[in-house]
Amino acid sequence: MAWEVVAKEVRGLALGAGARKNRGMGMASERAVSGGALLREYMTHLRVERGLRPLSCEAYLRDLKMFAEFLEAENKTLLTAEQGDVSGFMQHLREHGVQSRSIARKLSCVRGVYRWLLMDKRVRRDPTVNIESPASWKVLPKSLAESEVTEMLERTAAGAKRDGADGGGAPGTGLRDHAMLELLYAGGLRVGEIVALRQEDLRLDVGSVQVRGKGDKERMVPIGRSAVEALEAYVQRGRPELVRAGSGIQRALFLSVRGNPLTAQVVWQMVRGLNRQASPHKLRHSMATHMVEHGADLRTVQTLLGHADIATTQVYTHLAIDRLKTVHRMCHPRATRRKVGREEAVGGGEVGVAS
User: Fold this and answer.
1) Domains assigned to the chain
2) Cα–Cα distances in Å, from 191 out to 2, 6, 14, 211?
3) Which pTM does this prediction carry?
4) Which of 261, 249, 254, 224 has the alpha carbon at shortest distance from 238?
């Protein structure tokens, strides 16, 4: 009888422990489910109300999932997080070797979701207030030398000449790669903008391309003669070969060997294959840097790149500081000593301007 009582108590303890464990797991599962639903709702807000492109939304979602997982380990959620949790998240990223620029981007993403939560009255306080962003946002973008870009273009031009021939790859790919590289550098397009282009976006008769950028904002980007000629050759001789390899009608401008719309990964691989230090985005920086170095004003570069804020474009002034110094010495009245001839001076005297 006593053994039966003891056995019953043991079974009760086991069941109680199991229930507590299941209840704890259930609470964690419930937090995960509610957090996932919240993030899905926020993604809908970004796509529908703010008009962000799918790739941008995916980047936001990755960063927010990382933050949500960090909070879950601290038994917190997005709705219960405090300022110390955000600071702890940033410190956690630093300790794991994440670069300051990436940390700043993640913090910006977290700020965005809390602005949305505040507007929707789901939280009372914004835990990101008074948290400083890493100062490395001012890191200068890296660009290629003009000679490096020229070498890459010469290589793709050679590939376009032997397109489809022995060792020239699949028919159409050589012309395609050369047209893409010319367009990346001529227009400073983002890789997502390149793969989203459609054939009807080309305005080759007037030397321009209609581009859909971030937030589905459209802009007309002028391109030079080299890019126009490369695109004409691709559209007339290269793209039809790639279309024939597919099974249906494609509106995308740049196609794969199977006739499908090209992916951003393929563009990255093509550029990296030409120069291991290069990338599609570095070509974008290179285009802006080289234009400023050759005298372009920032407003023009801002329009070409599709920057919403001139402050984003101002970083390129640091890259062309030598040219700015030269212009300053030539144009500022107190930067150089100038002499006016005696016949031009008032009163017959020689006039000098102090440096």
Assistant:
1) 19-138 (1.10.150.130), 146-319 (1.10.443.10)
2) 76, 70, 58, 11
3) 0.62
4) 254
In whole angstroms, give the CA distance from residue 93 to residue 112: 19
Coil, strand or helix at 304: helix
258 is catalytic: no
- pLDDT beyond 90 at 250: no
Question: Which tokens sit at 310?
Answer: 């001139």
Active site residue 284: yes
Nearest CA to 64 among 49, 84, 46? 46
**Structure tokens that stand for 281 in this block:** 């985005």
Two structure tokens written together for 11 = 């079974």
How many other β-carbons are positioned within 10 Å of the β-carbon of residue 294?
A: 10
Residue 337 is among the residues annotated as catalytic for this protein: no
Q: Which of 42, 60, 114, 316 is catalytic?
A: 316
Summarised one tens digit per residue, pLDDT across range 51-93 is: 888 888 888 999 999 999 999 998 999 999 999 999 999 999 9
Three-point CA angle 52, 104, 111, nearest 5°: 55
The two beta strands, 202-203 and 339-340, are unpaired
Calpha distance 189→211 (Å, rounded)? 8
| 244 is known as an active-site residue | no
pLDDT on residue 352: 36
Q: Positive or negative, the Cα torsion across 226, 161, 235, 214?
A: negative
Tell me which H or E stretch contains 138. none
